[in-house]
Design a protein that fits this description.
The structure is a single chain. The chain is mainly alpha-helical and 266 residues long. The chain has 2 domains: 85 residues, no CATH class; 106 residues, no CATH class. It contains 10 helices and 8 strands. The longest helix has 31 residues. The relative contact order is 0.07.
Amino acid sequence: MTADSHYHQLFPLYRDTFNTCFYCGCIAAGHDYAPPLQYLEFYLATREPSEFLKIPACNECHEHLKGCKAGTLDERRNFARKKLAKKYAKALTIYEMWTEEELQGLDFSLRHSIEAGLKLGAETTERLAYPGFAFEAAGQQHQLQYSEVQVFEIFGEQFETFREALQFASKAYRIPKNALKEAFADNDNNFERAIQALHKAAAEQEFNQQLKQQCAAFAKKHKQAVIFVHKQVERYLSENDEMTISEALQHLYNTRVKPATTNPAS
């Protein structure tokens, strides 16, 4: 008995998916095995989770899966997707960050390079989203299980793709795409939290800049040490959340800086 005989051929149920890679939707050029042929004896002996399927696959997915030891279809599909995403990470980033309209005005070589990245990124995005297809194996039919479409919500607006949501949020809230993408990842993959966090950081930066400038001007005008003025104002502000920088400086002037008046001799 050959090793291949332990596996059941995965046959597409519908004509439009014949000769199609189960993992990414490209043209199939060969077969992948779940579990891999070189680990067949291990799976037979240990009875680790495995499906013993012979799966149509494209050359690229087949090459990626040479490094995968998993024995189930879902595990191998996830592995192939991660490899594709890593290989084409640069193109995916270009696809997320650029639109055709934004290419206008660029010099030819740069525009040509970005256009190529957009095309490759779009193709890779489609491959990564490929859900597989309905198939028959060992006399059993397996229908395609549709997963719920992920929706990105941004303060009442809804988008089906990360790219569309990123483009909208960047333009609507005037945030650079790179900064927004990083904040999205840092805030539980939530655009609303990312926008709020970036706006809060920008507000704090503006406040600190105003604090520095106003304290420096006050210190110069009243011949005080800048560090003294800064620390006193920070203390006043921490004690009273409603106090403004100007009010804190005025309070400092009235209590610590204003020259004492002397009563004229009677």
